[in-house]
Amino acid sequence: MADRSDIHDRLAASLRAARKARGLSLDAAAKLSGVSRSMVSQIERGESSPTVATLWALTQALQLDFAGLLEGRPAPGIEVIRDGSAPVIDRGGVTIRILSGPESVGAHEVYDLVFAPGARLTSDAHSPGCREHLTVLEGKLSVTSGEAAEALGPGDVARYPADRAHEIAAHSGAARAILIVQDS
Question: What pTM was estimated for this model as a whole?
Answer without folding.
Answer: 0.61
